[in-house]
Amino acid sequence: MKAAISAETVLQQAEKIDVEDEWFDVIALPRDVYAIAEPGHWQHVISYLISGAGKSVLFDTGMGISDISAVVKKLTDTEIMVVNSHVHFDHIGDDWRFPEIYVFADEHAVDVLKRGHSHDMLLFDSDPAKFLSGSPPGFKPEEYLIKPVDIKKFRQLAAGDLIDLGNRQLEVWHTPCT
User: Fold this and answer.
1) Which residue among 14, 68, 103, 116 has the highest number of C-beta atoms inside a 10 angstrom radius?
2) Averaged pLDDT score across all residues of the chain
3) Quick check: 74 and 68 in contact, CB under 8 A?
């Protein structure tokens, strides 16, 4: 019988990966999974890269404050499949940088991705006081917005769909808020 390992223990034993981008902290987790954190903002967003033999899933693209696609390219050379958990701004910030975006088949989600988030919508989170250690080089909080995604990039997911990564499969579960 295997003993359960706490999340705290896993993080203490995990290897931090240098991706040459001060905005991101990347932690190698078990089974070829990487936590890609943005600790410099009060939201402390974490996206996940789940690597497979044939392709990898990037589960959310973060805030779009620094280029998460460049980080992902340093972690894997497989094809990247972006899957959005939901469409809050801090989960879709860099969707526009990728060729395909998988989102649950939901009219609201598609609408949010098509229109993006204007700077006016992000005033609270673009306030310099929300950046815990300053913003990264080249980022201008006064111009922060989430770019819209071209509808041609959308792929819709449904509950029960399987995502085949070559040596592992992920099943889509729909967990709506009530």
Assistant:
1) 68
2) 92
3) no
Nearest CA to 35 out of 18, 24, 48 is that of 48
18, 103, 117 from 154: Cα distances, Å: 31, 7, 17
Least confident of 4-18, 91-105, 142-156: 4-18
Query: And the tokens for 91?
Result: 């989960």
Two structure tokens written together for 141:
């909080």
Task: Reply yes or no on domain 7-171 having CATH 3.40.30.10.
Answer: no
DSSP assignment of 40-52 equals TBTT-EEEEEEE-
Alpha helix locations (H) across the chain? 7-13, 68-75, 89-92, 107-115, 123-126
Task: Delimit the domains of the chain by residue range.
Answer: 7-171
